[in-house]
Amino acid sequence: MNKQDLTTLVAQKTGLTKKDTLATIEATFEAIGEVMISGEDVAIPQFGKFKVLSKSSRNGVDPRDGSKMIIPAHKVPKFDASSVLRKSIRES
């Protein structure tokens, strides 16, 4: 499913226009991203939790030439599905 399909589905469920629905979806994703960039988690009950993990630096190998390298510390986004969502997916 892409953003257009999601917009159509949400518009059908809410009765909003596709234009208003698209604006709402984009604003929601933008807000989630801004909160995560600031370092906070976003928890949506019965759906899941978006969080930012900090990865420490570590030793690695350059796949191009096999030389050793240091992978610097960095942050990565992560999504943990709620138990309600996991259960509904398993049962479908």
Per-chain topology:
Elements: H1 3-14, H2 18-37, E1 42-44, E2 48-55, E3 58-61, E4 68-71, E5 74-81, H3 83-91
Antiparallel strand pairs: 1-2, 2-5, 3-4
Helix pairs in contact: 1-2
Could you explain the architecture of this structure?
The protein is of the alpha+beta class and 92 residues long. Helices cover 45% and strands 29% of the residues. It is built from three helices and five strands; from the N terminus they run ααβββββα. α1 packs across α2. It has one domain: IHF-like DNA-binding proteins (HU Protein, Chain A, Irregular). The strands form two sheets. It has a three-stranded antiparallel β-sheet. Strands 3-4 form a two-stranded antiparallel ribbon. The protein is elongated. The longest helix has 20 residues.
How many extended strands?
A: 5
Q: Give the low-pLDDT segments.
A: none
Any idea what the shape is?
elongated
Mean pLDDT: 96
Radius of gyration: 19 Å
What CATH architecture would you give?
Irregular
Q: Give the total of domains.
A: 1
Succession of helices and strands? HHEEEEEH
Broad CATH class? Few Secondary Structures
Spatial order of strands in the largest sheet: 1-2-5
First-residue to last-residue Cα separation: 17 Å
Summarize the biggest pleated sheet. 3 strands, antiparallel
